[in-house]
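Researcher: We're teaching a course module on how sequence relates to structure. For the next exercise, students receive a sequence and then see the predicted structure as tokens, so they can try to spot secondary structure elements on their own. Here is the exercise chain.
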Amino acid sequence: MKNINSRRNTFTLIELFTVIAISGLFLSIVLSSIINMKMKARDVKRIADLGQIRTALELFYDSNGYYPQSGCGWDCNGYSYSYGASWNSLTSDLGPYIGSLPKDPINSSCAPWNNNCYSYAYGNVGRNTQRAQYDLTAQLENPAHPLRCGTKGWSFYFSNRYWCTAFGGSYSNQIYEASIN
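Model: And here is the predicted structure for the students to work with:
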């Protein structure tokens, strides 16, 4: 009789493993949600940052009649990247219009055209031979974001060729374009 009572007050090994498995599953769901929330928060920051930069660029244009040059000047296919020294030139040009020029939350040392490359790019600035325009670009992490290139079909302003692979281009579907068209 005593042996039966002691078994009722303890957990069996199977019950213990079941509780551990359920706890592990719950923990993995919570961690996955936290990771997704961080990814989405970084994308919100990217869009807000590029909005601030775009505002500063438009204020610069209103004062000067042209946009700041890119890494290669105007009317050339060159860029300033948030991970490189060329970002400092843009920072100095936009200094009167923005407190500090933001950088991508991850700020990889590669251009945002390729998958898993998180940085900001400003360039392809028209002035003399091309119309006054620029590209202001980042890569979003959320593969379902409604503003990414794979959904919007961003294209080059000077040739109307699509950027991303979803529309026949050669760049990442995760590109976000913030320039004024």
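Model: If you want an answer key for the exercise: The CA atoms of residues 122 and 136 lie 5 Å apart. The chain is about 40% helix and 10% strand.
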